[in-house]
Amino acid sequence: MQGTIDGFSYGAVTPVAAFLMACLGAALGLRCTNRSLRTERSFKAGWLALGATSIGSGIWTMHFIAMLGFSVDGMTIGYDKPITFASLAVAIGMVGVGIFIVGYRGATRMALVTGGTITGLGVATMHYLGMAGMRFEGQFEYDTITVALSVVIAVVAATTALWAAVSVHGFLLSLGASVVMGVAVSGMHYTGMAALSVHVHPGAHPDAAAAGAATAPLVPLLIGPGCFLILAAVVVMFDPLMVMGTPDWNDPRTSGAGRPPGIPAQRQVPRFGTHADPASFHSRPRDPAPPGEW
């Protein structure tokens, strides 16, 4: 018997909340990946791991917040905890592989294609593994073409996000890239849900309290990843390089920016300080010499 699906039991609340969580995870992950490119090699792996865990947790949390609004008419929905947490591990693990490839190999075409494909497949695997962990008196069936489209969206979104992580500099640009990734991840999720149809077992017994029962087991599962994202946000906020970036005078790529061709860079001289305390010196451009003192 065909079951009736409602993916928006709480209206726009769950899609909007899910989208915001996807954006938060993407923003933290992209900034951590970008930060890894400007740190010592001994700390690079730590920043990449934090970025992978942030993106994976954000995507997983986004998925299950969206599932809070999912219901099958008259059916009580439960969740298998081992499979549900396995989907979180898959998301973090496969996203981590993609981020480490790009973090260490740079934004080369091969690294982006390889890392983006692995990351996108990890996002799609997380989604469908999480769906496989749902328990109710029926079974899911999927439209193959729509599923394939959702996987393509995931791979393209992941590749674009990895490119942005290593190529886009500046807080506002990274924020914009995270919004784009949030839109793409949400689009992948609801494209996958559009491929879904439900067949209820003939002997199933409808339950009038099914809507409330479906929400209860999900809330405790979301607490851990949600708390992690908050802690990751605190780490990002207290690292000035994550928000402000490196000063222009320390960035060799911008050392010649803004000067007409042929004019050399101004020398840096101490503004104040003493030779006994070298740390008290600060640099500023040398003032031009007055006429007659050449």
From TrEMBL:
Ranges that cross the membrane: 12-33, 45-71, 83-104, 111-130, 142-164, 171-190, 210-238
Region described as Disordered: spans on this chain: 252-294
Keywords for the protein's UniProt record, in alphabetical order: Membrane, Transmembrane, Transmembrane helix
Domain MHYT: 10-199
Alphabetical list of InterPro entries matching this protein: MHYT_dom
Record keyword Isomerase present: no
Keyword Transmembrane listed: yes
PANTHER family (alphabetical): DOMAIN SIGNALLING PROTEIN, PUTATIVE (AFU_ORTHOLOGUE AFUA_5G11310)-RELATED (PTHR35152)
Record protein name field: Membrane protein
